[in-house]
Write a structure and sequence with these properties.
about 300 residues, 14 helices, 2 domains, mainly alpha
Length: about 300
């Protein structure tokens, strides 16, 4: 019975129970997220010299970064990539989900698995397979040659086509995930709303415009947020497929941070670039949250 003393004290003390339940998760967040973020903030104001960080607090890293022409090009490229990938995933994701929900029938699960497979497959395996598809004698060029295309694109070795190949692959792997989320959102819409609207004489387009689209807006908002965040974080595609080549034609903000931090050992510059990227994504997310009251309907 004496062994029950600490246990009974644990049961009677709400603060102790709260610390036991929340403490491990909070410690994990502090160690894995907050401390690295704090170190990046500190390093972004320090000077890097001869592979060493010097605690000279100034804005030189930010001035150097924003004054670098290559960085501005990489920033614009990442912004365009994020806009294109997000638009395609959002605009095309819900029609595909709507088609599968309405006309998938017995093949619904097969269609979902086929479209979502690129997202859930391992990144390295997926990208390696895509290199075979996009190679000079890959399946895509073989298919184009069957249609009489003589000037076949050199997808991964041409400055003209390499970034478009990266964007296409990003859309390919993001579209399936968006479709799954939209499909889940469609299944949560009550069927009796459609039945009541049909009894009132509402057409299919009217039901879609006044029921499906408004009630799907929370999921659309969620997909929009995660697509923007994910599109700015394109790294493994560039690292495996092109190594930012040819001639930096596929270099992006995240790969620029990786190069400066782990190839050139310019931790100050890399940290400043990471902070700029963080502020960009944070600003876009806050703007979306600010605007959601105008078009997101939760009831």
């Amino acid at each position: 019975m004496s062994g029950l003393g600490p246990l009974s004290g644990f049961k009677r003390n709400p603060a102790l129970r709260f610390a036991a339940l929340v403490g491990p998760g909070a410690a994990f967040i502090v160690v894995s997220l907050l401390l690295p973020l704090l170190s990046i903030v500190v390093f972004s104001f320090w000077r890097t010299e001869s592979y060493e960080l010097h605690a000279d607090w100034n804005l030189d890293n930010y001035r150097t970064l924003l004054g670098e022409a290559a960085y501005r090009i990489f920033f614009l490229r990442s912004l365009v990539t994020a806009v294109l990938v997000t638009l395609v995933c959002v605009v095309c994701g819900w029609p595909v989900a709507y088609f599968i929900a309405r006309h998938g029938g017995r093949y619904r699960l097969l269609l979902v698995l086929a479209l979502a497979a690129p997202f859930f497959t391992g990144a390295i395996l997926r990208i390696t397979a895509l290199q075979g598809l996009l190679g000079p004698i890959g399946l895509i060029n073989m298919a184009l040659s069957l249609f009489g295309v003589s000037d076949l694109p050199k997808w991964l070795v041409s400055s003209r086509w390499a970034m478009w190949a990266v964007i296409t692959v990003s859309v390919w792997q993001g579209l399936g995930y968006s479709m799954v989320l939209f499909l889940a959102g469609l299944q949560n819409i009550r069927k009796d709303l459609y039945e009541a609207a049909a009894l009132d004489g509402a057409t299919g387009w009217t039901r879609f415009w006044y029921i499906t689209l408004p009630l799907l807006s929370p999921m659309t908002f969620f997909v929009l947020i995660i697509s923007i965040i994910g599109s700015f974080q394109v790294f493994e595609l560039v690292y495996v497929m092109t190594k930012a080549g040819p001639s930096n034609a596929t270099n992006t903000l995240v790969y620029f941070i990786y190069q400066n931090g782990f190839s050139f050992y310019q931790m100050g510059t890399a940290s400043a670039a990471a902070m700029v990227l963080f502020l960009i994504v944070l600003t876009l997310t806050l703007v979306q949250y600010r605007l959601q009251n105008r078009w997101v309907h939760y009831e």
